[in-house]
Every structure is written in C-alpha cells, then in structure tokens.
Write a structure and sequence with these properties.
The complex is a heterodimer of chains A (about 110) and B (about 110). Chain A has about 110 residues and is mainly β. Helices cover about 0% and strands about 55% of the residues of chain A. In chain A, strands 2, 4, 5, 6, 9, 10 and 11 form a seven-stranded mixed beta sheet that branches. In chain A, strands 1-3-8-7 form a four-stranded antiparallel beta sheet, with no helix packed on it. In chain B, about 30% of the residues are buried. The chains are: A mainly beta (about 110), B mainly beta (about 110).
C-alpha cells in the first residue's frame, strides 16, 4: 500500500485566496483525520470522519475552514478565505478503527502571505 | 483541564548514552496512549500503542511503559539515526485525541 497520500506537498498563496488540500487515505481504513501542526500549538486535531461522515469537527478553528469526504478514498480540507495565521503543516491520517494506530501522510506545508 | 505534557522539550545524548522521555497526562477515561516519531519535513510515524497501566512494549532500542499518570519511552544505547522528535498522544473519553508538544532528541556520534 502506498500509505496516506496528500497533495499538494507545498502551497504558497496570498491572503484572501481559497486553498484546497487533498487526501487519499489507506484503502480499507474507515477513519480519516485532519490535523494542523504549528510550532506554537503543536499537533491539533481539526476534524475526523467515520465511513465518510464527519463525526467531530470541534477542532475546526473557524467557519473559514471546511472539510468533505465524498467517498472512501478522497477527502478535502478547504480554507476560504485564507489568512496568514493559517500558515502551518496540515496532516491527514487514517486508521482502520477509532482506537487503533493512525497512519499519517507526509503533510501539506501551507504558507499564506 | 485535559492535558498532555512531554518532558524534556529537548534532549541531547551521546551515542550509547541511554535515557528516558516522559509523557504525563491528566485526562479522564484513557482509551489509549500512542508514541510517534517525527523526522523533519515528514509526518509522524507510529511506534507503540499502550492501553492499560503496567503495559510495556519494545522495538529495537525503544521500550515504552505506561502507568496511570504517565508513560516513559526508554532509549537504550541510542544511535545518531534515533535523532527525531518523539510525540505522545492520548485518546480519551469519547475518542478525543490530544498530542503532547514533543521531545526533540539529538544523538551525537
């Protein structure tokens, strides 16, 4: 298996622009997680899905953030409009069951100017 | 407040110098404690999962232990390739997940 795949790996955009991050989980994993990592706040859980359904989005910082999972092999995290404080590394992870190991993707490094 | 605290923030060791990293937590309803290794520019890589106090797991030079309040990651005779940031994460209550800030380990040859 190729592991969790994220794209793009790097994104540089200007404040106010829409940003879409993409994730392909490991096949057969029922859970998908989106995280954000910064030096100040460490790794924070934003939202997670079970069988394509959002279960807990309490970590989503603002209404500017939205996430979707239209099918078992694809998820997006969208920021609209983006702000400089959104600059961070965004990770996607997947796991077969909720209490089992989460496997992380390589991350998307986002810089908002 | 639910918290996960890792110490020390940074640790520098000579090759072969054994040591331990600490992860203390104040959460209710622990469901699992996870240790990850993260290399610069990469995503966290799974090391261990511990589910109950008294549990221990080993992998090569690493050994993880768990009590009711904390977990230790023991590194025996580390090598330079063990240099990385080590993260612990706690899953609790209704599947809430919280990560510690990590310990940045540097092993000098």
């Amino acid at each position: 298996d190729a592991g969790v795949i994220q794209s793009p790996r790097h994104e540089v955009t200007e404040m106010g622009q829409e940003v879409t991050l993409r994730c392909k989980p490991i096949s057969g994993h029922d859970y998908l997680f989106w995280y954000r990592q910064t030096m100040m706040r460490g790794l924070e859980l934003l939202i997670y899905f079970n069988n394509n359904v959002p279960i807990d989005d309490s970590g989503m910082p603002e209404d500017r953030f939205s996430a979707k999972m239209p099918n078992a092999s694809f998820s997006t995290l969208k920021i609209q409009p983006s702000e400089p404080r959104d600059s961070a590394v965004y990770f996607c992870a997947s796991s077969p069951r909720i209490s089992e190991t989460q496997y992380f993707g390589p991350g998307t490094r986002l810089l908002v100017l | 407040e639910d918290q996960v605290t890792q110490s020390p923030e940074a640790l520098r060791l000579q090759e072969g110098e054994s040591s331990s990293l600490n992860c203390s937590y104040t959460v209710s309803g622990l469901r699992g404690l996870f240790w990850y290794r993260q290399d610069p520019g990469k995503g966290p890589e799974f090391l261990f999962t511990l589910y109950s106090a008294g549990e221990e797991k080993e992998k090569e030079r690493l050994k993880a232990t768990l009590t009711k309040k904390e977990s230790f990651l023991h590194i025996t005779a580390p090598k330079p390739e063990d240099s990385a940031t080590y993260l612990c994460a706690v899953q609790y209550n209704n599947n809430d997940m919280r990560f510690g800030a990590g310990t940045r380990l540097t092993v000098k040859p």
